[in-house]
Amino acid sequence: MINRSRLLRICFTREDTPLETPELAKKYLEIYSARISPSLLEDIADVDPDILCFDFDYPDESQLLLLRKIKEKLPAIPILMMTDYHSEALVLWALRARVWDYFIKPLNPEEFIKSVKKLNRFKNEKELVDSRKLIRPTSPVQYIGRVGVSESIGSSSVRRAVTKAMIYIENNISKKISLKKIAEHCGISPSYLSREFKTISGMTFSDYLLKTRIKLAIKLLSKDDMTVTAVCYDVGFHDLTYFGRIFKRYTGVNPSSYHESVVSKSQECLANSDKQFANINADIDNSTANLRAELFLQRCRGEA
Fold this sequence. Notes:
CATH superfamily of the largest domain: Response regulator
Strand order of the largest sheet: 2-1-3-4-5
Largest sheet: 5 strands, parallel
Shape: elongated
Number of domains: 2
Helix content: 55-70%
Oligomer: single chain
Mean pLDDT: 77
């Protein structure tokens, strides 16, 4: 028989609604609730919880300060944090405050149950403190990728991360760009970014990066005063042979032939490369248009 853990939900929400947990979670939890009041510490002592759950709509500074103070007073009790509002700054704050797990509402049932089962197992083994040391994050970025916080983040924040990655690529196209570096820039793990990038954009990270480089290369090679070597480096390739091979893969002609065709106005070569150029543009534009529009709206609302 499973020895259930006592979870005390500390409610910061505007409406006093029940905690909407997956049905299966009740197999592992006895759920209690408390509102914010001067006697909150006494309420916590009365329940003697194994887990504290801070439930927010839109956490403000005073509410977050209270969470931190309670963690300082009761360091051995793991804290779950649930919130309607999400930002990268908030999740990093939570990790630094030693929140055990962080969830965007509505809850992801699988992630919530996974976290609860882990905590319940530690409780039953009476190894909670020692076990927590073993999986305590060494840095916020590593923790996001390793323990599953990023998988709890809602789809809108994932789209923001992918859009942020695309913008980073465009703004740094002449530099060496790696999946790992962009993942760190976006605050998520490389494997998670790779998976979600393909899901959202419809193409792999490497394919998008190469197509973006080639799109700019075609534009630069259309200028009479540009050389193939200069374009190669300007769009982030540092090997002329490799640049030529990738350019031909996507356009059907090598960069020298394309550049010469622009200068000589070779209609046949231009027609072929222009068709490929249109395909590359369509792929990239279709992948970024909706994401950019969404990011703009979120910025207008102050969410991004």
